[in-house]
Structures are given as structure tokens and as C-alpha cells.
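Sharing in case it's useful to others searching the archive later.

Someone asked me privately for the predicted structure of DUF3263 domain-containing protein, so I'm posting the question and my answer publicly. Question first, with the sequence:
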Amino acid sequence: MTDEDRALLDFADRWWRTAGAQHDAITRELGMTPTRYFQRLNALLDDPAALAHNPALVRRLQRVRAQRDTGRTARRTLG
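And my answer, the predicted C-alpha cells:
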């Protein structure tokens, strides 16, 4: 896992506890677009090194992702 990956995870861990303009902070602090941030964050959730770096954060975000995926599936079958 790179230093940039660790910074991204640390940002994600810090961010959910604070209020503010997340997209602006992503661009300012990480130097990437919000779309790229979320793509990389999603990929890191499947990386064992990310789990070792911050297990509580990664497990929490994996649960959020699973709930979101379940909701999408339910909407598709109802629609």
C-alpha cells in the first residue's frame, strides 16, 4: 500500500466525523477529483493491506457498501 493510499484512508477516517464541503476537501487535500477518490477508496476496501492499516474504517465502509448494493438490487427488482 502506498503513502497516497494511506493518506486516502486517513482522510476517509477523519472525514466522516467532521462537517463541511467534502468534495472541496478531497480536491484540496488529496489533489484528485471526488470521482477518482471514491473509485480508489472502493478499490482499497478489497485490499488486505488497507484492512491491516485501519480495520475499523475498512469494515465500516464495507458494511456501508454492502447495504448500498443491497438497496440497489431491491430497487431493480421492484422497479
